[in-house]
Structure prediction request, 1520 residues.
Amino acid sequence: MNVVGVSQKRQDSPRKLTGIEKFAGDLRFPGMLFARPVGSPSSHAQIDSIDASAALEIPGVVAVLTADDLPIARDANGNPYKTPIAQGEALWAGQIVALVLAETEAAAEDGALAVVVNDSPLPVVTSLSQAMDFSAPPVRAHGTAGGDDEASMHNADAAAKDESEKETLPPNATGSTHFKRGDVAAGFAAADEIVELAIYSDTVHQGYLEPQACVVNIGPLGDLEVYTSTQASFYCRTRVAETVGYPVHKVKVTPMPVGGGFGGKFVLIEPMVAAAAVAVNRPVHLVYTRMEDFVAGNPAPECEISIKLGGKKDGTITALEVRSVFDSGAIGSAPMEIGMILLGGYYRTDNLDIRGYAVNTHKAGGGAYRAPGAQQGSFAIESAVDELCARLGLDPVDFRIKNCVIEGDMRPNGRPWPEIGLKQALEALREHPAWANRAESQKAGRGVGVAIGGWPGGVEPATAVCRLDADGTFTIVLGSSDLTGGNTAFAQIAAEALDIPLNKVAVTTGDTSAAPFAGGTGGSKITYTVGPAVLKAAEEARQQVLSIASDHLEAAVEDLEIADGVVRVKGVPDASISLKQLASMSMQVAGKYEPVYGKGSTAITDTAPGFAVHLVEAQVDGDTGAVELTRYVAVQDVGFAINPALVDGQIRGAVAQGIGWALYEGLVFDADGQPLNPTFMDYALPKAEYVPYIETVFVEVPSVHGAHGSKGVGEPPAIPGPAAVANAIRSATGARITKLPMTASVVLDALGGPVATAAD
Amino acid sequence: MNVVGVSQKRQDSPRKLTGIEKFAGDLRFPGMLFARPVGSPSSHAQIDSIDASAALEIPGVVAVLTADDLPIARDANGNPYKTPIAQGEALWAGQIVALVLAETEAAAEDGALAVVVNDSPLPVVTSLSQAMDFSAPPVRAHGTAGGDDEASMHNADAAAKDESEKETLPPNATGSTHFKRGDVAAGFAAADEIVELAIYSDTVHQGYLEPQACVVNIGPLGDLEVYTSTQASFYCRTRVAETVGYPVHKVKVTPMPVGGGFGGKFVLIEPMVAAAAVAVNRPVHLVYTRMEDFVAGNPAPECEISIKLGGKKDGTITALEVRSVFDSGAIGSAPMEIGMILLGGYYRTDNLDIRGYAVNTHKAGGGAYRAPGAQQGSFAIESAVDELCARLGLDPVDFRIKNCVIEGDMRPNGRPWPEIGLKQALEALREHPAWANRAESQKAGRGVGVAIGGWPGGVEPATAVCRLDADGTFTIVLGSSDLTGGNTAFAQIAAEALDIPLNKVAVTTGDTSAAPFAGGTGGSKITYTVGPAVLKAAEEARQQVLSIASDHLEAAVEDLEIADGVVRVKGVPDASISLKQLASMSMQVAGKYEPVYGKGSTAITDTAPGFAVHLVEAQVDGDTGAVELTRYVAVQDVGFAINPALVDGQIRGAVAQGIGWALYEGLVFDADGQPLNPTFMDYALPKAEYVPYIETVFVEVPSVHGAHGSKGVGEPPAIPGPAAVANAIRSATGARITKLPMTASVVLDALGGPVATAAD
Prediction:
């Protein structure tokens, strides 16, 4: 293989590196209005009136729209379809209560500041314990838009859930899960050691560079043209269409380049912006400010997990008991179920009892963030396992190798794992000098922690097209957004199949009016599911090319080869036809050959879970609690790296995000539900200087269905970070930290105040 | 059949009837400049300098560009690729010599008026006889852009030409044809009567409502986005790409609604506008004024035909001799060859000798106009046949039925006709009351004339896609432009194949980045060649739908039917699944079915020629020469009318155009090549009041390859009009008129001045 398995530059890099990429927010249409949201001052209130009079006097302000002014259709239950705008009742501080539309961005901003919101505050539910209280006031006093199943679009396990058991839930619970196997009481009775931890994780924002951005233009017949930073154009089309009550054919979604999505950009503002455009019959442009994205986005949810893990001195796990509560926010969803499946699914145990709950609170709707639910669940189990090993004096890597699941082992939901590379990744780490020589780290006063993370991987049917063009090059036409270089990988797959150089393949992500279907770019599924579709399409195109050449050259297909831009008879260099000539013969007047148009479809239902094993070396400043990461090793089963540089990039980016989860990031609210740090001045993303050099190690356990054995690689490396860092801190200081983020003050508290550490 | 064969409203009618369609000229992009051409004052001149200083002082004028400023690449011969802008040498009066670009249309217009062209006149060649002179000065003093083969894109016969004989040609001849069969001298010797006519036809403009219009936007990476009123988006992409020297992937052509094309909108201004956009790195908008379209468009060519036809009293044709000269203009092409093939191809004759020439003159480049070449050639042969019958006292319909070609008869180029419906159409006319009772017309002082017209029909490979959408409806994705309701016909074909209502099918014409290939919408080929592709795609989609339903319902495919939006087991109404559910199962997370995506390709090489037979009843005012058409019957073999109303509309529009050719239209030039009537005030299109009620009669001789037997219907009815009108005038007055248009003064001259006519 010449093209796949080799690092290639991303085809979209030049335009991004030079800053000339055009994003949704850069678009301008004649007559376009700029929208600026007015946020609710209260975290829960009846909106009595919106006084727009002062705003409307500002030159350039065209309209101030509330939900009542927007043509938002109602679902079968009579509820308006979900948008971020309040329907008479503000459900969190900063929820959009009105949109100011103006001829300029400045006028819209001035207008938003001039709008007066008159409201009557209602009781507020902010904490998860409050939300689980049977006597708590309902978060939604009136029936307004509920949650959705977006989180389930990231993994096949959650989508396949089957709720056979029902318990009575508090009024603000939106869902629950209960997985049970064996007898946990007996299991704990048989344990030599029992670890009980109370895990907490803050709300975390996806932190994408480009905020939510969408422009909706109106076609001559009133059709909507939605230009948006979306990971999922077809899903976005359906959501916009149902919101405004249009047939899907009257909505065209053009997926624009995404300046970071990480699960947070399936659909959020598009239905609201579309409704606003319909309301005023003009194009409408909305790009969130950073603060709006913090307060009215769809961040990863806060959660609390109580975990109890029992084990024996021989390294056997005897029982696992868990109770978790995940925050759905006011109108979102929570990836609780998949979090619990993973928490209880990494290790074999005969006895487990896992309960999970999702609850509404007065916060922005919860959303998906790169491996949604896995970070929190994995932080719980990987902290508990590490603590158990520490207390029993067991080697944590050997313990994991002994207990980790392999093909055929059951997940909590009763579904067996397919072939996975977890054990191989653990074995690779065991051999790595960073682990093998960990005694040296410890001598230097540094702790070494290890944790794993796995992701089931999403699957969704997809179609790809491979078309020969007039100049003898090929175009791959897809319906999937390219977030992280996927289109470059697809070009590699096609070039390899067609025996042509990479630069002879262009990849087009079409709009929803003409593109073949693909699901959202999320859940680590695009390379895994679209890749084989591209391969099939390219192979079909190749057969069509060879068939034409066979007829033209009067040679058998099996005697032909494609090389140097021509199809030629093997061993007879003069008997050839160029791809350009061949294109011409199939696309010209009176041409006798059909156009080359290969199609490939997949409907893969077998998932290809990916696992990462991370090692962190850390030292802790005993005076301040500050944690410095001094070494980072990321081992991962990637199936097959179609483009090693891109896989490497995925891992490095994910590790940085994991470090953010571990040490820095968390949206904080006061008791009234007011956000305290919704800016990048106050909300700390890890800067480059806080991310150590990352050593990546690929393990390649090929998947059955992925092109060349590839599998999704985006989400697994975002998972182990928090637990690996916590375990390194435990290794360095003996302190077990169970709250994310593990800021210096949290660590200092856990140490019991300023102390001398081994690193001093 | 429920959906095809039934008149259905055009899907694009509402937006056109209500005036809300958005055409290319309606587009606006940020930073866009309006272009206004500066036309050459001389019909042939060396351009010494362009003084733009005054223009550049006008506020809003940004640039004045000449060919030297445009990045126009050169072809393999070192010549710049063809654009309408002069390359140092002005080749006709009104040729674009500079483009003024300005922030507003008004500034561009003022700027164009302020540009001073300093040139040195060169000798002018305007008439066809001058152009055939061996001592004439060359039309192109310097090697500049030559012709192209656009005319050949309209029919398969011309494209398949094989020039085996070469004669020495005068310097301004661009091509020649010689068809020979038998012994014409012997044929004429055996004739009882010989008709010799000198036919002349003016330059005729396509007369579309929307002038040439194109906007070129520039993407972030410098990619060109061409929005244009084109009949042929893929061909346009190739032409633009080669002109600016880009790979085709860096050019995206979005075909906009075409406000009338009639062959004149394959490609004309797009390469020039693209080069201008590249030159200034800003979007450029050019919409021709009506006058620009007259002087710098690509009209149907002037031509002269000498025809000599011999026949016997028994109705046998003994010989046909023809010499024709067609005008290519300065940089265009002429459909001389196909004109000659048709002229000599309608009737069986053992002896023929046909020579044709195409020549350059100092006029705008010749282009294609609905059945290019056929109007002129048919006017010649159908006038001669009518005259022969009149002189021999033969019934002109019986004569045609006796002599007309049927399947297997040879065309002048030695290619046999496939099955055609000419004879059936003539027989249908013979039975029509307008012909059967023609004596009554004659009693009323009216003449009755008949003429035929045939078109070989184009073929070109094509691909179509049929996609199931989220709401259970289908989308047909195509690369062909919809000029005359083709997309409605395709929706009918798909709906019929899928057993769904017509309103459940949308048809999308995609841009060149994502659409499957189709040729230009011209040559009466789109329904014939894309239709079967749509049918195959829909049938494949249907099979995919049934296959999914079969698995889901656990029933054999052959027991299933599609009806009422569901797939159900025949006779078991409860065993069903809706198309929407089926769409969901094939396009959702963890879906186990591949997306429904049917593909159909065709590479039909057998043409399906179409024939029309027209009858005109006319009366002539002997005092003025004015001709009034009092009855019009249009009989046509349409193969199968997928949408009778649309076929009817095609015929009515074509008849009106034929009446324009016959009586009103002609671009007139003075001896210096200056156009005398380039406005709709002076150039007469037939108004509604001059077009009589048209009776249409369909004959359906099914084609072998067209969907349901359909064949192209657009061009045949545009052909017979001029001869039918001339023959009616002959019938009414005895005068044979051989010059088009047959204006009142031409008729009066032919009558020998004011005379009493039978109609008085």
In short: Chain B touches chain A through 64 residues (CB under 8 Å). Residues 472 and 580 of chain B are 4 Å apart (CA to CA).
